[in-house]
Amino acid sequence: MPDQPHVSAALHGAALLNDPIHGKGTAFTEEERRASGLEGLLPARIDTIETQLERVLGHLAAKPNELEQYIYLQALCDRNETLFYATVMSDPARFVPIVYDPTIADACLTYGHIYRRPQGMYLTKRMKGRFKEVLANWPVRDIRFICVSSGGRILGLGDIGANGAPIPIGKLQLYTGCAGVPPDSLLPIHFDIGTTNAALRADSLYTGLRDEPPSPDEIDALVDEFMEAANAAFPGVCVHFEDWKGADAIRLLARYQDQYLVYNDDIQGTASITIAGLITALQIKDEKLADQRILFAGAGSAGIGIAGMVVEAMRDEGLGEEDARGRITLFDVGGLVEASRGDLNPSQKLYAREGKPEKDFQAVVDAVKPTAIIGVSTRQGLFTEGVVSAMAKLNERPIIFALSNPTDKAECTAEQAYQWSGGRALYAAGVQFPDAVVGGKTFHPGQANNFYIFPAIGLAVYATRPKRIDDKMFVAAARGSADQVGPADRNAGMLFPRQDNILETEITTATRVAEHIFDRGLATVGRPDDVRGWIKGMTYTPAYGAPRS
To answer: Residue 305 carries which DSSP code?
Structure first.
C-alpha cells in the first residue's frame, strides 16, 4: 500500500485546516479527518491534488487580469503552499510571468493597496541593535537562503521602498517553482531603510517607514549587523541581495563576498543570463566571446555587473584583463563613459575610454563599431531604427539585447529589432515579446530572464554548501544554460532554453555549477559519483506527504 500522507501531530482541527504547510483542504482522507478533528469542517468529497489544481485553474480563468491572478495565487500560497507550487510547476511558462516578472511590477506599484497577509519577515532600520533578537522570531531554524531587498531599485520602477516587498517573496518562490529548492529552507525579507519616493510616503496605505534613507555609512552599519545576525540565527545561510539601489548594491556585494556566503542577482544573475545569451548567439555566428566589441547602454549595477562578468568569461578564453576591458564601452545618462567625466564612480572608471564626450548613442555606435549592444538603461526606444540599422551594416548578425524591464522600458521591441535589421538580429529582451514575422520567417525572441540562473545557483548551493560564491560560478551557470539550446531553436532565433520543462533545465544547469564547485574544492560536502542524480534527489515535489527538505 502507498504511504499515507503525513499530517502534523502538533496541529488539530481548524489549526491544521488553516495551516499553509500541512493543510490539504479537501484532500484530507477520511482517516485523517477522523484522527485530526476535521470531521464536519470539510465537504464530503475527498479530492486529489489534480482535482484541486483543476479548480484552481478555473478560478484563475475567471480573473480579469494578471494582477488579480497574482493576488489569487499569493492567497493560495498563504492557505495551501503545496497546491500553490503544484500550480506553478504544472505550467512554468504560463505561471512564472504571473508570480514574477512582468506582473510583479504591477504588484509592487500597488502593494500597499493589495496587501492581505504578511509573507516572510519585515526588518526596519529602527531595529538596529536587535536584529538577532528579531530574526529569532522566525519559526524555522534550518534556513538556507535569505533573499533581502531594500526596495531601492525595483525593475525599472526606481526606489519604491516597502512596495518592493513582493520581490524577495517572488524570487524565492522561483527557487522552488523553477528548481525545486525545498521551500522550508527559504526566507524572504524586506529591509526597510526608508524611501526617497515622496509620493509613496504621502500614500495613506503605504506599509513602510515614511523616512528618507540614511547615509551610505549608516546603511553599511545596518547591513553589517544584519549579516552578523543572520549568520548567527541561521548558520551557513546564503544571503541573496536583490534590488538595492545601484551604488549600495555594488558596495555591499564587494563588502561581504569574501566574508559570507552571499551574491547579488541584479549584478551577477543578470550578468550570467546575458552571457548565456551571448554564448548562444556566438555559437550561431561561430565566433568567440573574446573577439567581440560590446557597447552597454547603462552603467549602473546591472551594466557594471555584466561588464565585469564578460571580462571574466573573456579571460577564460585567454584574453588578458586589460585587453578584455578594452573591448567594453559604457554609455549612460551622462553620455559616453570617458576619462574626462568627473561624475564616475570607481567601478565605472575601470571602463572609462580615452576620447571626446559624446551624448548621442548612435554616434557612439558609429565610432566604436560594436558587434553587440546591451541595453540596461530603462530608456524606452533608445535603440532607434538608426541604431539598429547601423548595427546591421556593421555586422552580418548583429547582437541586440534590450534587457530593461518592465515592457515599457525596453530599448526596442523584438519586432523592431528584426524589422530594422532585415531579420538578421540576434535579439533578446528582459521581458517576453511575442513572435515576430519578417520576410515570411517567424522569429521566437529570447527572454534574458534571470530565472534561468538564480534558481539553479540556489539548487547547486543548497546541495554543495560552498565556502563562498564568486563570478566563476555564474559563468559556469551561463555556459550550462547556453548548452541546452538546440540547433532548431537557435535557427528560430531562440537564445535561451524553452520554459516548458524548466525544472529539468535548472537541474542540468545546477549540476554544471555543482561540478564546477567540486572541481575547485569549494564544496563542504563530499562529491557523489552521480552529481545530477544526487541533486535531483534533493528537489522538492509538490505532493501531499512528500518530503519538504
So the answer is: H
Superfamily grouping for domain 268-450: NAD(P)-binding Rossmann-like Domain (3.40.50.720)
Residue found by looking up cell 536583490 in the block: 242
| C-beta pairs of 21-27 under 8 Å, 24+ apart in sequence | 21/81, 21/184, 21/548, 23/79, 23/80, 24/80, 24/82, 24/544, 25/52, 25/79, 25/80, 25/83, 26/51, 26/52, 27/52, 27/544
CATH 3.40.50.720-classified regions of the chain: 268-450
- Please report the pLDDT score of residue 1 as a whole number: 32
- At 246, the pLDDT band (50, 70, 90 cuts) reads confident
Q: What crossing angle do the helices spanning 471-482 and 301-316 adopt, rounded to 10°?
A: 80
Say how far apart CA 480 and CA 453 lie, in whole Å: 9
Q: Strands 328-332 and 335-336, how do they pair? A: antiparallel
The answer to pTM > 0.85 is: yes
The cell numbers describing 336, all together, are 559616453
The architecture (CATH level 2) of 103-260 comes to 3-Layer(aba) Sandwich (3.40)
pLDDT at 3 over 70: no
> Largest alpha-carbon pair distance within the chain?
80
pLDDT band at 5 (very low <50, low <70, confident <90, very high): very low
- Show the CA angle centred on residue 361, arms to residues 360 and 366, nearest 5°: 100
Domain 13-85 in CATH 1.20.1370.30? The answer is: yes
Give me the helix-helix angle, 502-519 and 471-482, nearest 10°: 140
- Using CA atoms of 548, 179, 172, 310 in order, give the dihedral in degrees to the nearest 10: 150
Range(s) within the chain of domains with CATH label 3.40.50.10380 = 103-260
Give catalytic residues, as residue numbers. 100, 171
Residues 6+ apart with CB under 8 A from 174: 96, 99, 100, 451, 454, 455
* Strand partners for 122: 190
What percent helix, strand, coil does the chain show, rounded to 5?
50, 10, 40
